[in-house]
Amino acid sequence: MCSNGNSIFKEFNADELANEATVVESLCMQCYGNGITRLLLTKIPYYKDVVISSFTCKSCGYWNNEIKPGGPIPEKGIRYNLNVCESSDLNRKVVKSDYASVKILELDFEVPAKSQKGEITTVEGVIDRSISGLKQDQDTRRVEHPDIAKQIDEFVGKLEKLKNLESPFTLILDDISGNSFIENPFIPGKDPRCIIHNYIRTKEQDHELGVFTHEEVDENNPILHPIQENENLLQDLQGEVLQFPTNCNNCGALCETNMKVTNIPHFKDVVIMATLCEKCGNRTNEVKSGGGIEPHGVHIEVDIHGKEDFSRDLLKSETCSLSIPQLDLEVGPWALGGRFTTVEGLLTAVKDQLSDPRYNHMVGDSQDTEQKDKLQEFMTKFNEILEGKRMVTVILDDPAGNSYIQSLKDDDQLDDNLRVTKYERNFDQNEELGLNDMKTENYEEN
């Protein structure tokens, strides 16, 4: 944040002339002369703050473009599985960090992580960059290794055909840092051709990113897990509000977080945390389950027919996804964080996020204008829901089993508009929760 309270990360808009880059003189790593680096701190709609840099050297002609995340490393890695079957899919915007690998399954082709610098491009641009890399030094290969050069030419021809979409292909973007992104042109609806999977990193992957636990940094400083070590501590903290210093996730200033343990009737204890930054005014609320992961996942459906249904208490954990079939809306886990609110409060939070300036404009071209119209139409329907003019079904699906919607009956029975189903998690869900590698027997052994 700037001293005047304005964000230093401006909206990413090709039509906005106010987005000025910072120009600095820097060393050219090609000829060791003086070149120019341009830095732009910007927001990418539907994504996050990023730092875009561009280097040019007039002496030798060397140039380089890079993109770096402007925020902290996310807690999980991310994998996009995109089925490219229409020309519009080739135009999808792609943010690819240094730690992202790219695979094209049909060609058994992979660009390893850290082999290329981060960039903002498109799906077609990813293919073009791969072609450019393979063509490099081909003239020398044709003289020294003609057979290898011929094989590379044939493979380049296959990559070129992908851009003509003679047949659909699958592109996988896998980033352990969680800082890569593929545009969803169907926003605010669900992307029918892209599957997004968040996963817990291994210890080795954390170390590759420079992420270490306190225990690994200093073995003399033990990590305290009070909730894990003493389940009775939650009862001891009932009704008390604890305060501890934290940093604002918006401007980085020092602020205080309030934490309180409370009990949800007919459910369990939860930990509620609220932070207010006095410097930038940013407010955050977060809810954590007071217990561990439940033995079963939970699928909850509630029909919204009136004000009574809006007033139901609702707990949405971080691992819980939200969907409204009537609007073809799906909000994945982690998007809204953990919340203890009402049905109306959760729907209002979804509306506020979609109404945020970062979500209602994109780069200025004709396709983005169409997206704005679609979003406006969607928001009209969403307002009708909040006004009670449109009946819908809200669905919560939480593989960790830590989400809840209040029943309007007092005897722990479900009312007619509420349906709750518990289910066995599959392998991928256990993998995302970090359960597949968890050792529960003889865990004290090395």
Helices and strands in order:
Layout: E1 10-11, E2 22-27, E3 34-43, E4 49-56, E5 63-69, E6 77-84, H1 87-90, E7 93-96, E8 100-104, E9 109-111, E10 119-122, H2 123-135, H3 138-144, H4 146-164, E11 169-175, E12 181-182, E13 194-199, H5 203-208, H6 214-217, H7 226-229, H8 233-236, E14 241-247, E15 254-263, E16 269-276, E17 283-289, E18 297-304, H9 307-310, E19 313-316, E20 321-324, E21 329-331, E22 339-342, H10 343-355, H11 366-386, E23 392-398, E24 404-405, E25 418-423, H12 427-432
Parallel strand pairs: 1-3
Antiparallel strand pairs: 2-3, 3-4, 4-5, 6-11, 6-13, 7-10, 7-12, 8-9, 8-11, 14-15, 15-16, 16-17, 18-23, 18-25, 19-22, 19-24, 20-21, 20-23
Helix pairs in contact: 2-4, 3-4, 10-11
Descriptive overview:
With 446 residues, this protein is α+β, with helices and mostly antiparallel strands. It has 4 domains: 10-69, ZPR1, zinc finger domain (N-terminal domain of TfIIb); 77-208, Jelly Rolls (Sandwich), CATH 2.60.120.1040; 224-289, ZPR1, zinc finger domain (N-terminal domain of TfIIb, Single Sheet); 297-432, Sandwich (Jelly Rolls), CATH 2.60.120.1040. Helix content is 24%, strand content 32%. It has 12 helices and 25 strands. The protein has helices at 87-90, 123-135, 138-144, 146-164, 203-208, 214-217, 226-229, 233-236, 307-310, 343-355, 366-386, 427-432; strands at 10-11, 22-27, 34-43, 49-56, 63-69, 77-84, 93-96, 100-104, 109-111, 119-122, 169-175, 181-182, 194-199, 241-247, 254-263, 269-276, 283-289, 297-304, 313-316, 321-324, 329-331, 339-342, 392-398, 404-405, 418-423. The strands form 6 sheets. Strands 1, 2, 3, 4 and 5 form a 5-stranded mixed beta sheet that branches. A 5-stranded antiparallel beta sheet has the order 9-8-11-6-13. Strand 14 (241-247) and strand 15 (254-263) form a beta hairpin. Helix 2 runs antiparallel to helix 4. The longest helix has 21 residues, at 366-386. The two termini are 46 Å apart.
